[in-house]
TrEMBL record:
Residues 545-815 form the CHAT domain. It holds the Pfam family CHAT. Residues 162-181 are annotated as: Disordered. It comes from Meripilus lineatus. It comes from the Eukaryota. This is CHAT domain-containing protein. Transmembrane segments: none annotated.
């Protein structure tokens, strides 16, 4: 048997038993055949289509996106090398259209759906009446058209410029007609409905796909009803959904899609009798065991939006389920930036969820949801590893468990497709049963794997919100004030080490008010210089600090002073617009007035979990102990880049540090030409404290690429986290812009100073905006004098007190408030 015949035999076996290991062998022998005879097989459209379809089927079976991309590449090549009149070109075109539709549903890239419409249309002309391929072709084209209708913002004539040129050259190609006669938006929807109706005619009751076709037609009719309010469309959609639900096995993933569509249909009736039933359907769909994670998440977001619109009692449950599903999906997506993009799509959900919980008087739940939602990305980025990667490092058995979880999660995340596939000759009922059993088996194995992971110490709350009873450990050394700034309501939740959190409503701290303050502060800092515009700059910063005192801090201080002693430490955990405002320095700033730094010693924490880790995260037990030591890093940037100014006071700053550092503490200096990224990363592994004096550059659109400017190159946030530092405890980042929040995800604190904490540093001093170069030596001297007074040992937990003392000394020396408020402390 030749390699080609062997590959074909395994492909046939997969069609019979559905075992994806047959696809592995199909792909293996196909590649071997191409390697041996590239001219014969590498240019054979039928053979290339077989490889492409095998990759597509393996993606559907296992969920590896790389297989989907490879499948599309091979199918495109199969189409390209086919003679225009070659009959076998059409199956390749059909497979390609199908694959592009699946990828569009995954990535929402309109170029994919544009090409999918063209490819599926090309496939229609080859099948004569009565040919089973017509059912597939109608379904494929209907799905592509419906997707394009829902996504299109521009006429086809504009979007077609993204479609490969080879697909537009044929005189009979649909793009030629589109270029001459751009479709109105409604035509896609009408054509999709027509195609699904044709599918239904070819797929009578008793056919294995009958329920799936009914769902597709009902979905399209509901979409038309939303725009036209034609009652017949709603009635037909309702009838088709009910029929499909009665036909499908309870573990068929399409049933989950039907529940979502039925919920939508119920709410479109605008009758109160159906509202509760609609939200019951939303819950059933979002928790359906065999529906894909990605599809359940999309549906859960619809549930959230609808529940908020109708002020339904299920709102909180909808938020909880959304975060569970988001966490599951983030554990499957391996690319860090891709995880961040997922998170940005849900930017306001954590504060919305918390506001919902506070409205219901469930303050502890509000804290849990804020922590789960806001901290989700950071919890996985603590050392640029997901919890699964941490699990894998524990040992061989745990690694096997992690592999199994990832494999099953990818299958679930890939989800169900409404695309049709050729079927075997087995009975309709048997085919439905086999499909349902396959999905149920995957779901049961995934659930059992998750349960097994939760039995491992440290993974008790895997894929679950951490309970408030655990989170309040963050307040063992002082209260933590967690802010929730939201359009619905704004509150400060005071977390103590005993009892439920106390909510202080902040009626005037609206997102609009705080955004205006943040914008004004940014403009003032960007357009003025501390030296030449000092009076104006100081006055404007004081106005911001007074407003923060009035609308945010004053009611919190009033509450705290009833139970917390003055000069005690407190922690601030800001959200949304507060992330870019200096609430730690809020005050009246008048003679005999009250300012927050005079009442409490303030620190920040991005999340409660981050603060708990900063206090409790032990060093790697397998790593050898090292002697506490100081690393001083300085880069003046004499070769100025990106408009940054040379740090003229750097030498004096480092000299001040070395003069104050007790003689018994080992130290090392890496200055200017010695301060390369490679040298710094290596030295970080060998020291417990670091003083970093250089420029920092924030990248608002890609915060993980924010960086410190060192000699010859940059030290990125990713580099520091990936270094997996074992011994570090304290960092002083005497750099510009090291603590500026990401403007596109304002409820995530993703900046350089916080990154150092998540990289392993338990305590970090940073700057909230550009520090005046003149202040480097003074803040350094006053800070380390306070840290090492009376020959104190290297205690990173004293950093907040030392910074507070240093800033007060600057105030005594008549340093303006804008130059003092820039410094912040993060962590323990």
């Amino acid at each position: 048997m030749s390699l080609s015949e062997l590959a074909n035999a395994y492909a046939k076996r997969f069609e019979h038993n559905g075992d994806p290991r047959n696809l592995d062998l199909t792909i293996k022998y196909c590649h071997e055949a191409v390697d041996i005879a590239p001219l014969k097989y590498g240019q054979d459209p039928t053979f290339l289509a077989r490889i492409g379809d095998a990759y597509l089927q393996r993606y559907i079976s296992r969920g590896n996106v790389e297989d989907l991309d490879l499948g599309i590449d091979y199918l495109r090549k199969a189409v390209e090398v086919s003679p225009k009149d070659f009959i076998h070109r059409f199956p390749a075109i059909g497979f390609l259209g199908r694959a592009l539709t699946i990828r569009f549903e995954l990535r929402k890239d309109r170029r994919d759906v544009e090409e999918a419409v063209i490819r599926t249309h090309q496939c229609m002309g080859v099948y004569s009446r009565g040919h089973p391929g017509r059912l597939i072709a109608f379904g494929d084209r209907g799905t592509a058209l419906l997707n394009r209708y829902r996504s299109r913002n521009y006429p086809d004539v504009v979007q077609l410029k993204h479609v490969p040129e080879d697909s537009q050259k044929s005189p009979g190609h649909p793009s030629q007609a589109l270029l001459r006669h751009p479709f109105p938006e409604g035509d896609d929807l009408e054509s999709a409905i027509d195609d699904f109706r044709e599918s239904l005619q070819l797929c009578p009751e008793g056919h294995p796909w009958h329920g799936r076709v009914l769902y597709n037609l009902a979905d399209a009719l509901l979409t038309r009803y939303e725009g036209s309010r034609r009652l017949i469309d709603q009635n037909n959609a309702q009838r088709y959904l009910e029929s499909a639900q009665a036909l499908l096995h309870k573990d068929d993933p399409i049933l989950g899609m039907i529940f979502f569509a039925s919920a939508r249909e119920h709410l479109l009736r605008f009758e109160s009798d159906y509202v509760d039933d609609a939200f019951s359907l939303y819950e059933k769909a979002s928790t359906h065991r065999t529906l894909g994670t990605r599809q359940k998440l999309t549906g859960a977001l619809s549930w959230v939006a609808a529940a908020e619109k109708y002020k339904h009692s299920s709102s909180l449950a909808a938020y909880k389920q959304t975060f569970i599903l988001l966490d599951q999906q983030l554990n499957v997506v391996t690319d860090v930036l891709a995880r961040h993009r997922i998170r940005k799509r849900l930017a306001t959900n954590p504060t919305n969820a918390a506001a919902c919980a506070i409205n219901l008087g469930e303050n502890d739940t509000a804290i849990e949801l804020l922590e789960q939602g806001r901290g989700m990305l950071w919890m996985q980025l603590a050392r640029l590893r997901t919890p699964i990667e941490d699990l894998r490092k524990l040992g061989p058995e745990e690694a096997t468990l992690a592999d199994r979880f990832e494999e099953l999660s990818k299958v679930l995340d890939a989800g169900v497709t409404t695309i049709y596939r050729p079927i075997s000759s087995e009975k309709s009922e048997d085919a439905r049963e086999r499909t349902a059993n396959k999905h149920r088996e995957v779901s049961e194995r995934w659930e059992a794997t998750v349960a097994e992971i939760r039995c491992i110490p440290g993974f008790t709350h895997f894929l679950q919100a951490t309970p408030y009873s655990d989170l309040r450990d963050a307040a063992k050394e002082g209260p933590v004030v967690v802010f929730n700034i939201n359009e619905r309501r704004s509150d400060a939740l005071v977390v103590s080490d005993a009892g439920a959190p106390y909510a202080i409503q902040l009626p005037h701290a609206t997102p609009k008010t705080l955004a205006s303050l943040s914008s004004h502060l940014s403009d003032v800092l960007a357009k003025t210089r501390a030296e030449s515009d000092e009076r104006y700059r100081t006055n404007q910063v004081v106005l911001v600090l007074r407003e923060l005192w009035n609308v945010v801090i004053y009611p919190i201080v009033q509450y705290l002073l009833t139970s917390v002693q003055r000069k005690s430490r407190i922690w601030l955990c800001p959200t949304a617009e507060l992330c870019s405002l200096p609430i730690h320095a809020a005050g009246q700033y008048r003679a005999k007035g009250t300012n927050l730094p005079d009442i409490f010693v303030c620190s920040y924490t991005p999340t409660l979990s981050a603060l708990i880790r900063a206090r409790q995260l032990p060093s790697d037990p397998e790593a050898p102990d090292i002697t506490p030591a100081m690393l001083a890093i300085g880069e003046s940037n004499d070769n100025v880049r990106g408009g940054e100014t040379t740090l003229l006071s750097l030498s004096k700053e480092i000299e001040q540090l070395m003069d104050i550092l007790p003689s018994h503490i080992p130290h090392r200096e890496l200055l200017n030409t010695d301060a390369t990224p490679e040298a710094v990363l290596q030295a970080l592994h060998e020291h417990t404290w670091v003083h970093l004096a250089c420029h920092g550059v924030q990248e608002p659109t890609q915060p993980f690429y924010s960086h410190f400017l060192l000699h010859g190159n940059s030290l990125r946030l990713l580099d520091v986290i990936q270094a997996d530092l074992k011994h570090v405890k304290f960092a002083f980042t005497s750099a510009c812009h090291t603590a500026v929040g990401d403007k596109n995800t304002s409820d995530e604190v993703i900046h350089l100073a916080a990154a150092l904490q998540f990289a392993g540093f338990k305590s970090v001093v940073g700057t909230m905006w550009g520090m005046d170069d003149r202040d480097g030596p003074q803040i350094t001297a006053e800070f380390y004098r306070a840290m090492f007074s009376e020959e104190k040992s290297m205690d990173h937990t004293e950093a907040a007190n030392a910074l507070n003392a240093a800033v007060k000394k600057m105030k005594k020396n008549k340093v303006s408030v804008d130059r003092r408020a820039v410094f912040i402390h993060i962590g323990a």
